[in-house]
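yo, Putrescine oxidase is done. seq:
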Amino acid sequence: MERIDCDVVIVGAGASGLTAATRLRDAGRSVVVLEARDRAGGRLWTDDVDGAMLEIGGQWVSPDQDALIETLDELGLETYPRYREGVNIYIGPDGELKRFEGEIFPVPPATEQEIVSLIDKLDALVAQIDPDRPWDHPRAKDLDEISFAHWLETQTDDEEARENIGMFIAGAMLTKPAHAFSALQALLMAASAGSFSNLVDADFILDRRVVGGLQQVPLLLAERLGGAVRLGQAVRTLRWHPDAPERGVVAVTDDLEVHAGHVILAVPPILISRISYDPPLPRRQQQLHQHLSMGFVIKVHAVYETPFWREAGLSGTAFSPYELVHEAYDNTNHEDPRGTLVGFVADEEADGVFSLSAEERKARILESMSHYYGEQALHPVVYYESDWGSEEWTRGAYAASFDMGGLARYGADLRTPVGPIHFSCSDMAGKGYQHVDGAIRVGREVADEILAAS
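structure:
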């Protein structure tokens, strides 16, 4: 077995791990990055599918994502705006299609009033939340012990208002049913984006894309690190010294032993327990990792000969908590004459369609999209489903979140180092939580912690 010695070994070649590795190397430390997959990027993945460039993983850039924008500038990557000219589509509980402009859906006046009131209430609560320390809120325990669905029920009797507000957190972000996560977890999600208003504003949260795909960020970082990045190296065992952390760690793969002073586990938290630890991690970490789980969403890509919806004056943006595809957007690539729509099927709806055959699932999903865009949506030239739930080294999407009560109980220790073991990923971010921006922020912070300690 090959032995490598370095200052810091990083497990995971996603944006967070590679950012940490780059910062450490630039400070003069030697690093090795071990990646289980045969590619760098983690949950960022741009691939060619039947001649179409598809961003199978994360893709959007928001104007408040300073860390990501700085990285794009450093790497010389260009962005372009998501297409949004024209009117949007909303389908209500009666199945009626309505066109609208702006952020508020075309619902009955009383429902609109309730939606605006809920947004105002959530914005007021979010303003009290520090996204880096949500458990410090005076009511954190109480807010973490009721589901977001129940909290909404205490605020309004209007079911359509509740369904729409719930959709932005449950279906669009955490990709879990609103009864499965707490009000505090929902507030963290909104606080990480600056406000709940930002989450309901698609023109803000889904502002721009990267020419050539967002996976170029980790690919270019990995390229700069050169031979320090070792692909196809799943870490099986981590040996460490709890009583003498200065003795460091040994990360063991099937082919390598990497001896280092520190290790950064830059993987989704649900994968931390996939590694065997000698000796085992402390009780606190063993427990908290059991209270985190990934969401589940299918990202559907449908490519057409032309962006036909634009001819009808549609932006491509569509919403409905009553449709199988609860949200969809124009996802046409930069300077591509073809048109691409991207839609999302989340949580329990995703469970349902995966009980069908592939052809039945495709037919059901395209039928739902046709309710927004018409009969032409049934006939894409390329069709692809991003199913991160079946990815061995991710096991869900978009990110991990705590179960009821878990955030207030365990959140403060989520990133606490254990001797020479450090933790870094977007799932652990405050600002930029579950986004590439958060991954970069945490990667920088963890690297700085190691530099300050050595």
